[in-house]
Amino acid sequence: MRSIQLGDKTFELSITSTEIQKAIYRMADEMDRDLKDKNPLMICILNGSFMFAADVMKKFTTPCQVSFVKLASYQGTQTTGQVKELIGLTEDIVGRTVVLLEDIVDTGVTIDNLVKQLNGMGPREVKVATLLFKPDACKRDVTLDYVGLSIPNEFIVGYGLDYNGYGRNLPDIYSLVK
Ligand code: IMP
Ligand code: MG
């Protein structure tokens, strides 16, 4: 099994880029079916979601707008449990269908807080599309409308996900070797 080193930690290959792309095609199809006539505003949650958002948007054929927000809740391999304020949303979302594009839902704190913040801004609906989901880590009752892959409760890097800022550029996903 291919392994890599990032700083003090070793990671081994867990999800290949082929598996990732297969999950993304399926998600884009499901989203096209649901969102066809809804003029959705797609929001990529930076930093981690940049690769997922780019790939899923290339497969999504529904006319839409794409925007970006930034938040962060992680330090090293541990969630701080606190989500920083939503930065950068300049669009008026009143009456809009908003779709959040997230790399991973872990404890669910980030997405739960963001969905609540956005729901307070008068949208028609807020949907969530996440490439990865850790069901065993999730502590919040969040509705995930589109899920790429459910994964075990392990720390992973690659395909946008980082360890102290490193590993985001890897096309495959690797899990931490303990
Ligand atoms: P949550 O708030 O615990 O659901 O975590 C959300 C954010 O933490 C995600 O959007 C990721 O950016 C980051 N995150 C969660 N799990 C991992 C992981 O295994 N590796 C790297 N980043 C992660
Ligand atoms: Mg993220």
Automatic annotation (TrEMBL):
InterPro entries noted in UniProt: HGPRT, Hxn_phspho_trans, PRTase-like, PRTase_dom
Gene Ontology cellular-component terms listed: cytosol
Keyword Chaperone: no
Cofactor(s) recorded in Swiss-Prot or TrEMBL: Mg(2+)
Family according to the record: Belongs to the purine/pyrimidine phosphoribosyltransferase family.
Chief localization: cytoplasm
Tree of life domain: Bacteria
Pathway membership: Purine metabolism; IMP biosynthesis via salvage pathway; IMP from hypoxanthine: step 1/1
Taxonomic placement: Bacteria, Pseudomonadati, Bacteroidota, Bacteroidia, Marinilabiliales
CDD domains xref list: PRTases_typeI
Native source organism of the sequence: Breznakibacter xylanolyticus
Name of the molecule in the record: Hypoxanthine phosphoribosyltransferase
Entry-linked SUPFAM superfamilies: PRTase-like
Molecular-function GO term, any one: hypoxanthine phosphoribosyltransferase activity
NCBIfam families for this protein: HGPRTase
Pfam families xref list: Pribosyltran
Cellular compartments annotated: Cytoplasm
GO BP terms, alphabetized: GMP salvage; guanine salvage; hypoxanthine metabolic process; IMP salvage; purine ribonucleoside salvage
Domain Phosphoribosyltransferase: 19-163
Catalytic activity as recorded in UniProt: IMP + diphosphate = hypoxanthine + 5-phospho-alpha-D-ribose 1-diphosphate; GMP + diphosphate = guanine + 5-phospho-alpha-D-ribose 1-diphosphate
EC code(s) of this entry: 2.4.2.8
The entry's keywords: Cytoplasm, Glycosyltransferase, Magnesium, Metal-binding, Nucleotide-binding, Purine salvage, Transferase
